[in-house]
Amino acid sequence: MTKDLKFFLFVAFWCSVTAFSQDLSVKYSFIKNGLSIKDYNLDIQKDHSLFYDSEYCLDNINIKSQLIILKDNSSEIKVLDKAGDVSVSTRKQIQLNWRMINETKIIENYTCQKAEVIYGNKKWIVWFTNDLPFQDGPFVFKGLPGLILVAESEQYKFELLEINKSLNKQCSIKQEGRKELSYDKYQSLFDNITNKNNNLLNSISNLGLKLETDFRSMSEKETKNNAIRELL
Fold first, then answer.
1. Hey, what long-range contacts does 157-161 have (CB within 8 A, 24 or more apart)?
2. Which structural domain, as residue segments, surrounds residue 50?
3. Predicted confidence (pLDDT) per residue in 26-85, tens digit
4. CA torsion, ordered 20, 131, 99, 103, to nearest 10 deg
5. Threshold 0.70, pTM exceeds
6. How many CB atoms lie within 10 A of CB 140?
7. Number of compact structural domains in the chain
8. 36 and 90, same structural domain?
9. Within this chain, do residues 150 and 195 fall inside the same structural domain, yes or no?
10. Pairwise CA distance, residues 228 & 232, whole Å
11. Residue-wise pLDDT tens digits, 161-197
């Protein structure tokens, strides 16, 4: 190999590493039983990533869903959320024992490899690409040698919508001032909120207060917000 060729290969390698050292923003569609529920963003930065409802970044004070998953190089995730007017946070250990499968396909012009994992008593199949060497993906998924473009179980699916090489500068996610809960208490909190909302809807229906349509619409929005909490 000539010195010129060695130098060219070194420069090409260095440029590829430099190109992928920048931040990345990825948008996914969250699908349940074949129906699109919400869009979620994955913002990948130098030492951590944030996965959150795409509407969170919009200038809309009526946005209630604030579930955000913060991932770093540790074996746990940090969950930031909001229960009514109270901002809360919790942590959860995540164990992902990936099994690589010798199968590939093209997704949005990226060559992807198949892998699978058991998480939350569900078998998940994912497709990741080495063309984007970010060891991250939607929801809690991470740790493969490339960006996960699609992740799906029997009932749920995260599907790639778009990839941007710059982050949404509108997003300002505050971690300070949140009430820290154990993961068990976090689960109980939102289980109780869901049960109260369901009971209130049933009461309104039984009393014939003509508020059922409005409250049902609010309840459906909250159900969409809870859909991803079911998976945690």
1. 157/29, 157/30, 157/31, 157/32, 158/28, 158/29, 158/30, 158/31, 158/40, 159/28, 159/29, 159/31, 160/26, 160/27, 160/28, 160/107, 160/108, 161/27, 161/28, 161/29, 161/39
2. 21-164
3. 999 999 999 999 999 999 988 899 999 888 765 554 555 578 999 999 999 999 998 877
4. 180
5. yes
6. 20
7. 2
8. yes
9. no
10. 7
11. 999 977 655 566 777 788 999 999 999 988 887 766 6
C-alpha closest to that of 149 among 125, 126, 130 = 126
Q: Tell me whether residue 62 is in a domain.
A: yes
> b/e for 86-103, b at 16 or more Cβ within 10 A?
ebbbbbeebeeebeeeee
Query: Are residue 73 and residue 186 in the same domain, yes or no?
Result: no
Q: Strand order of the sheet with strand 76-83? A: 99-107, 110-119, 122-129, 147-152, 156-164, 24-32, 35-44, 49-53, 68-71, 76-83, 86-93, 179-180
Residue count of the chain: 232
Beta-ladder partners of 77 = 71, 92
What tokens does 224 get? 């969409």
Residue among 42, 17, 13, 5 nearest 161 (CA): 42
